[in-house]
Structure formats: structure tokens, C-alpha cells
Amino acid sequence: MNADIFAILFMKNFLQQIWWNNSVQQYAIVLAEIIIVWIIFKLFRKFIFSFLKKFANRTPSEVDDAVVAGAEKFIIPYLYLTINYGIINQLTFSPHAEHILKVAFAVITAYYFVRFINHVIHLSVLLYMQRKQESAERITHLSGILIVVKALVWICGILMLIENLGYNITTIITGLGIGGIAIALAAQNILTDLFSYFVIFFDKPFEIGDTISVNNITGTVEHIGIKTSHIRSVSGEQLIMPNTELVKSTIKNIKRLERRGVTFKLNVRYDTAEEKLKALPNIIKEIINSQEHATLDRCHLIALGDFALTFEVLYFIDSSDYKTFLEIQQNIYLEIMDAFTKKGIDFAFPGQTFILQHPLNADKK
Questions:
Q1: Which of 318, 278, 272, 271 lies closest to 299, judged by CA?
Q2: From first to last of its 365 residues, what are the pLDDT tens digits of the chain?
Q3: Surface-to-core class of residue 214, CB atoms within 10 Å of its CB (0-12 exposed, 13-18 middle, 19+ buried)
Q4: CB atoms within 10 A of CB 320
Q5: CB of 112 within 8 A of CB of 78?
Q6: What is d(CA 322, CA 326) in angstroms, rounded to the nearest whole number?
Q7: Phi and psi for 53 in degrees, rounded to 5?
Q8: What pTM value is reported for the model?
Q9: How far apart are CA 10 and CA 311, in angstroms?
Q10: How far is it, in rounded angstroms, from Cα 299 to Cα 53?
Q11: Where in the chain is the domain with CATH 2.30.30.60?
Q12: How far apart (Å, rounded) are the C-alpha atoms in residues 307 and 305?
């Protein structure tokens, strides 16, 4: 009995001992509360979040999956740290230790706030591009733009943290402004290429896999980078072109060509019979319309030249494939030559025709 009373008195005295401005009993209560909160959050994650994840997986929308994942990754850990911060504040600390605790909590708050904002931005843009059914390549390129955006968010978050800690950020912002001007002047070309990349990404003059023609160069786009784009020319070389040059140039996107118009001229001799000249447009029409993907638009005599009668032909091809265009054009030319040979129609070539008279005939005049 005396031993039990002694143990109780010892424990009571021990709990009432003061260590660093707080009793042992206060430390024990704080520790117990932290353990209880840890258990509650552990159970909450195990049961409540498991149910929410299963529910989100059964829905066709991806928004609820993203909300649950974001809450588990950012909101729950920050809420847990905030509650523990409130529990720890029940203790009495020295001014220096209290200041350190406040700074630590401010840093944690800024960290989770910036990460949550970046997560929301990334997720919003990603879901928007998926809803617009953008290609996987463009979604991959999104990371290049988001790096810059996330860096700006981090800078703003750090400045807000410094201001909340009681420091004057006006001088810092002024210094950053002067330094930013110096950096911008030093990296003017890089910033110009970066801006050009934004133009290419959002305006979409071409995408990976498109066949384009720019500055008399025709090739297929293989890569679109922040500074340069890679184009595989038709002759096989890989061309590395700055985005700035691409944006400044006139770009022909051959892949997006829905209908290709082809114009050519035919020169026939002046001594071609009239009935053959009248039949020529119908001959051209039959030849062109017999080709798959080709349709004649017009064929007319447009000029009485110095050495030939000139017919102009316009037809359309409903294919953007360049090889198809070459094959159709070749077939049309060959069939025209064959038809002219059979109909007795001669092509005219640059030159002059001289009519020679016999001297006796000249005297008769």
C-alpha cells in the first residue's frame, strides 16, 4: 500500500516537473493528442479515401479522380500539419523558439500552397487539352510551357512568404526588376524563341507529322522544341530551324491541303485545224476526269501568242499526298501527248515561221 502511494506521489511530482517552461504533464498531453490525430488521419485515409477513390473510378469523368488525388496529395497533409501546429502551440516556448516555429509553419504553408496552385494549373490545362482531343505530342509539349508558368508561381509564392515574415519586398522587387532587364537583354534571342514557341503551340500552324514548306524547303516536322524545331527534308536531311525564323516565314502546311489546284498551259501550232482546236477542251476533260482524285475545272484558249495558240488548264486533286499529285500529273501529261499524236495535233515551240516564195512567182506579182 505504501509502495502504491509512493509511486503515485512520485508520478505526480514527475508530471509536475517543469522542463523548458512546460510541465511533463503538458508534454504528455500534447504527445497523446498528436498520436490520436495521427490515428484519426490514418483511418480516414484508409477508409474514407479508399471509398472516394473507388467511387471516382466508377464515374466516366476524370475531374473527380483529379480532385480526390489532389486532396490526398496536398489538402490532407497540410491539414494534418496545421492541426499538429495548433496542438504544439499549447506549449509555452521562448520567443526565439516560437519565432522559429512560426517561420517553419509559414514555409510549409507556402510550399503546399504553391504546389497546390501549380497542380491545379497543370490539371486544368491537361483536362482542357484532352477535352479538345489534342494529340499526345501536343500534350507532351505542354510540359515545356508549364515549366515557365510554374517557375513564375514559385517566385510569387516566395515573395509572398518573405512579405509575411515581415521583410520589405519592395527593395527585392526593384532589384529583381533591374536584374530582370539585364537578363532579358542578355537572353533576348532565347526569349524571342520562347515566345515563338508559344505562338506555334497555341496558334498551331503545324504539328508533328505535318508536311510543310517554308523558305523553299519541304519536309516533315519531327520535333517542336522550345528553341528550335526539327524538319526532315524530302531529300533525307534533318534541318534544325529556329522557331523565330519559322514564325516570321510564310508556312505552307501541305498535310492540311484539302484540295490541290494545278494549272498548266498547252501551246499548239497556229496551223492546227479549227475543228481540232474546238475539240481540244473535250479531249483534256476526258483525260483529266478519267484520273482518280482529279476533276477538271476549266480549259480555254487564253492567248494568241507570238508562236503558238495557248490553252490554259486548271484541275483539282482531292488529295494532299504529294506522290499522288505527281502520279496524276504524270499520267495526264502522257495521255495528252498520246492523244495529240493520235488526233494530229502538234505542240508549238518557240521560233518563227518563214514563207519562202519562188522567184518566178515573185515576178508574176
A1: 278
A2: 556 665 665 566 666 677 767 787 888 888 898 999 999 988 888 888 788 777 777 777 777 777 777 888 888 888 989 998 888 888 887 888 888 888 898 999 999 999 888 888 888 888 877 777 777 767 776 766 788 788 888 888 888 888 887 777 776 666 666 555 655 555 566 667 778 888 888 788 888 888 888 888 888 998 888 788 899 987 888 989 888 888 888 888 877 777 888 999 999 999 999 999 999 999 999 999 999 989 999 999 999 988 899 999 999 998 877 788 899 999 999 999 999 999 999 998 875 554 445 555 544 44
A3: buried
A4: 16
A5: yes
A6: 6
A7: -65, -45
A8: 0.55
A9: 118
A10: 68
A11: 192-253
A12: 5
- Residue range 192-253 in CATH 2.30.30.60: yes
Cα distance between residue 239 and residue 248, in whole Å: 17
What gap in Å lies between CA 340 and CA 35, rounded to an integer? 98
CA dist., res. 81 & res. 108, Å (int): 9
Q: Which grid cell sits at 115?
A: 504546389
**Residue spans in the chain of domains classed CATH 3.30.70.100:** 260-343
Instruction: Please name which of 280, 270, 276 lies closest in space to residue 351, comparing C-alpha atoms.
Output: 270
Strands (E), the chain: 18-19, 22-23, 211-214, 217-224, 228-233, 238-242, 252-253, 260-268, 294-304, 309-317
Half-sphere exposure of 136 (CA within 13 A, CB side): 0
226 phi and psi, to 5 degrees?
Answer: -70, -35
Burial class (CB within 10 angstroms; exposed 0-12, middle 13-18, buried 19+) of 154: middle
d(CA 309, CA 304): 5
Q: Is 293 left (phi over 0), alpha (psi -120 to 50) or beta?
A: left
Q: Report, in angstroms and rounded to the nearest whole number, the Rg of the chain calculated over CA atoms.
A: 40
Q: Measured between alpha carbons, how far is 211 from 89 in angstroms, rounded to an integer?
A: 65
Distance, in Å, from the CA atom of 272 to the CA atom of 346, rounded to the nearest integer, reads 7
Distances (CA, A) of 360 to 118, 191, 357, 364: 102, 86, 8, 6
DSSP lists the bridge partners of residue 303 as 310
Q: What is the DSSP letter of 63?
A: H
Domain 260-343 sits in CATH at 3.30.70.100
